[in-house]
Amino acid sequence: MNENLSDYKGVLVFAEQRNGHIESVTYELLNKGRELADKRKTFVMAAILGNDLKDSAKNLIIRGADKVITADSEKLKDFIDTTYANVLSDLILKYKPEIVLAGSTNLGRSLLPRVAAKLKTGLTADCTELDIDPADGKLLQTRPAAGGSIMATIVTPNSRPQMSTVRHKVFKETTADESRKGEIEIFEVKESHIDVRTRYLGFKKDETQTVNLSDADVIVSGGRGLKQADNFKLVQSLADALNGAVGASRPVIDDGWMPFSHQVGQTGKTVSPKIYVALGISGAIQHIAGMKSSDVIVAVNRDENAPIFQIADYGIVGDLFEVVPLLLEKLKEIDK
Ligand SMILES: Cc1cc2nc3c(=O)[nH]c(=O)nc-3n(C[C@H](O)[C@H](O)[C@H](O)COP(=O)(O)OP(=O)(O)OC[C@H]3O[C@@H](n4cnc5c(N)ncnc54)[C@H](O)[C@@H]3O)c2cc1C
Question: The pTM is what?
Fold first, then answer.
């Protein structure tokens, strides 16, 4: 599909939905997509696949899409990766966007590699930053590489579209603007798109997910500085007092003090709460990769040279076993 690169125009966001509910990563991508489109002096499209999508399409315009392309069919009600890949790749061939963005979610990770392979173009998975090269207008796709020790910036020089999946919570969501106007176009779903060999049997929730860190406004995380599993009670108490969720650094998970669903960082969750409190966490690059876009970062560490203080908005140098009880007392006083 790589005849003439200049035939490809616009940024296309794959709008992920489940049971008609649009996943918030879509709004984050619409926000970043707009920034990239402005730099390329082009427009933002959203593609949504599913069934009964009228309201969803309007919602995508309100959230920043100039044009929404809907593939609406009873056959697309449930996600089947091969069928979705057939539809999405044909849709891309028709609309020829120069950039395609999708969430680095379970669905995005399953779908986008299939689409990229069908289109014979590149895909950079799990990006944490996207930009436009001012010199030649190419998409700069940045992601951690070599075990997180370097950030690699990848370009797709010879084929289109340039495709990336992006982690949830790396970018801020667009806000809703009811006055926005845009076009809605219907993409025809054909019998040949449907993979008859695969049937959707049902959806089984992952029961090991004990916490939804990605949507928490406040997260209190503990690290190796807690010394032992039992001391995590202190992290839980502060999280409860702040109506927040409990996070953790990787050694805490590796040592079995907390389940994996609490891990923040490169190999755990990417979070962006209003307040992130790091207790006894040194601030390794792999941890910071997962929480640096938090609005306010508070760190408690007894080592004044701990790297976490370089990104903290409020840093308390001290023993967490003394500092946290004092914070809890203060919060109780405020509550009275
Ligand atoms: C490929 C790869 C992927 C990784 N992915 C992740 C990831 O997703 N998430 C992640 O977190 N890490 C990840 N890591 C591990 C990462 O490199 C660090 O080892 C880890 O983040 C360190 O955790 P920590 O800060 O809890 O422990 P440490 O680095 O040991 O820091 C403990 C801190 O506690 C402080 N402290 C000790 N006692 C007290 C006290 N009483 N009061 C106050 N402060 C105290 C110390 O001063 C120290 O700064 C990854 C590593 C690799 C190689």
Answer: 0.76
